[in-house]
Each structure stands twice: as C-alpha cells, then as structure tokens.
User: Fold this.
Amino acid sequence: MRYTSDTPAPPLPQSYTAAAQSGSLRRGLPRFATTIMAVAFDSICILLGMTFGLLSWQLIHGKVLSDGISLTLLLSLQYALIFIFLARAYHVYSQSHKLLQVRDTEIILRISCFTFITLAVEIYVRKLMVPRIMFSVGCVTSVLLLLIQKHLTRPLLINIRSRAAQRMALIIGTGRDARRLFSYLHNSPDLGITPAAFVDETQEEAGGVIYGHDYVHRSSAPILAGEVDGEMLTTMGVSEIYIAGANIAPSRLDTLIRLARYHQVNLSFVGGGHSIEREREPSVTVADGLLITSYNSSLQVRRFYDKFKRTFDLVLAGLLLILTAPTWLIIALWIRMTSKGPIFFKQRRTGLHGKPFDMLKFRSMYVDAPVYASSPQDSKDKRITPAGRILRKTSLDELPQLLNILRGDMSLVGPRPEMPFVTEQYTPVERLRLSVPQGLTGFWQLSADRKYSIHESLEYDLYYIENRGFFLDLAIVLHTVLFAMKGI
Assistant:
C-alpha cells in the first residue's frame, strides 16, 4: 500500500500508535529507579546462591554450621558489593543493546570470575574460616541465578525504561544495516528512541514486516511504501529519520534534507561514505558496530577535560623534554655526521579547527627529498638517511613535536595532523578530526594500519573523539611508550 496524502498510513503496533498520538510517551520511572531494581535483583540472587552453598555444606556434613547465617550474610554482602561495582564499570545496568544478549552473559561470567578470585584471595590472606564447599557452591549457584535472572528480568526493565519520553523514528531502507539499527534502537531504551517503521521508497517490499535480532520474533516493525513526506512525519510524530543502506538519488536526498530541516527532524545516516554539506558539522557515533552520522547534533563538550588536557600536555611534554634532552644532543650529532643539512625538518600541517602550523621532526631524509611527497613505506627507501632508518624505526624522529605541544600547536594525544592539501579535500565526516587538538600519538599510530595513509583509517580517530578522556589519554601514552620500546 502506497502512503500518500489521500490514504491513511498502514496500521502500526498499538505502542507505536499511542506514541504517535501523544507526541511523546508518558513519563515512566527515572533511569536510576530501574538501576536500583536491577541491583536489588542481583543482590537477591547472590544471597540465595550463598544460602544454597550453606545448605549444601550442612546437607553433606549432616550438621548445622554454628555461625552459618552470619557467614552467609557477610559473604553475600562482600560478593554483592564487588559484583555491583564491577557491573557498573562494565555498564551492565545501562540497558543498552548487545546482540542476542550473549555479550551480557560474557560480561556476567567475567565479573563473577573476578569477584570469586577477589573473595578467595581475601579469605586466604585474612585466614577466614570459610568452608570451601559452602564458598564454591555458593559462588557457582550465584552465577547461575544471576544469568537466569538477567534473562528473565531484562524484558521487564526494558518495558519500564521505555515508558519514559520517547522520540519516534523512521528507518529508510530495509537491508541488513536497517535491520541491525532497528534491533539496536528497540533493545536500547536508554536512547529514548522508538523505531516505529521502515520505509521502502522503491515500493519493492511494501506491506511486509521486518523482525529484530532476537531468539524469537518478538520485536517487529511494518514496512511502509512510498516517499517520506511531511504528512507522514506529522501523523506519526516522527522526530528521527535514519537512512540505512537505501539507494537514494542526490535530488531525493536534497528533498529529505529540506524536509527534515523544515519539520525540525534529526536526520542521520547509517554507514560511511556520506558527504553532505550542512550548516553544522556532523556527529559520528558507533552503535552496535554501525557507524551513525547525524547532521543535527553537535559533539559532546567536555569543558573540564579540555582545560585539564592542556595542563596535562604542558606538564608531561615539559617533563619528557627534560628527560630526553641528552638523546636530542646525540641525535643531532648523528644527523650532522651522516648527512648534510639542517637537524630539524619542518612540514606544514593542519591543526585544531583547520589552523595551519609547522610541525617539527628530526630530519630523517636527505635535503633534496620532496617536502610533500608520499612518506616512505620501506626502510630501504633511498630518500632515508642512515640515521633516519633508526630514527623512523624507533619513532625518535617525532621527539621535536614536544616543542609543538608546548607551543600549543598539538596535544600529546589526538588525531595525527595531516597536510593542508589533504585536509582541503575532507568530507564533513573527515573534518571531525579537526574538532579536537591534533596529537603526537593516538590509536592510529598504535595500530597495524599506520602503514596506510591517515585518512584511510578514519575509524580510529572517530572512536577517540567519541570516547576521549583523561584516562584514555594516559592509556594511549603508556601504550605508546611500550610500542616504542618494542621498536615496532
């Protein structure tokens, strides 16, 4: 059935219809309330597991353990505290989608293993009188109860969480990415987005239904035919449009962009390769392995982190400069002895928000080598000097960029700065690299893909931009030190 201004929209599931009529769903319990419920469920499972461990010991030995109740309560409390702390760290209570919940089970098993080891070490160190059978059976039973409980209570918690205000979404496309996106949105109530329907503008699959990824076909959405128009958006109360794998002509895409802007609907794309000029730079997130590009939201601002990052750069770069000063002298003499020319090499690069600067390196190639030619891919390249072979192998040629960091041109950690002729050709998605300070090191430098061009490995920088923080920066610096020591 074709959706036009003269015909009503095909019937939607009752929950979607109610949401469309009310604009946004009624307020449900706040997020922390469902988290408390999940914590309570976990604590009860752990208490029951430890109680079963006590009963097993008493059944095997045919007697009652004198301090059994107090010991059970103590072990249950300690197990619960450690488990809940690790569960929070692993985002177990976030209610975000994980394919078939297999990932949830893996995390529960991992956390339980860590908890068991921690308690076992404590019992051994403090020489507590805890029966081994009681402890072992109690821990194993707790894990089994936790796994069963998570499987049974997850739908309940999702249903409660999803009653909070929701935004209705249309997914244009019916392919694999569209189906994965539907499953992700449907099973992630934290996002506050309800996938109401798929739209097939080619009308090849009109009237059908697409099911989500689950063990049984419990989640589904209808496939609407025809082109998305203003009446469809208004009737269904749509505030989000996702274009997922649909082959849309440029003229039609322009129409959708104007339509979304007029109705103040967020427009996002699933997958890469989109280059649409908008008044705002896009925001890119990774959702369940899908790259989602939104042209209606801005990057998350981290004001405290951004200010602290500069202090971190100044302190650590200054310290590294002092510690490596003797190395600078040795390298300078080595360069002078093995080739003619300056010690330092300057190359124009693009920094934060597109501001150009001169990036410094120890010169590793002969002076007659082109400044902006492609970088050598082989240590036997004839452009590389004898000293340069070792400098490039150990990344010591990058040391002078500590001066760039102190001057504010760069940061210790961030996307690697590109040359201007490359950044001039950036798409809106690629320009996201310039929204944060460019770095001396980062994910790309630590990966095997460093042998390829920087712009060919965009996913590393997008991941960093989305997850940047002090401890991530510190972890990258530590891995870089290890990386350099290995001489990879």
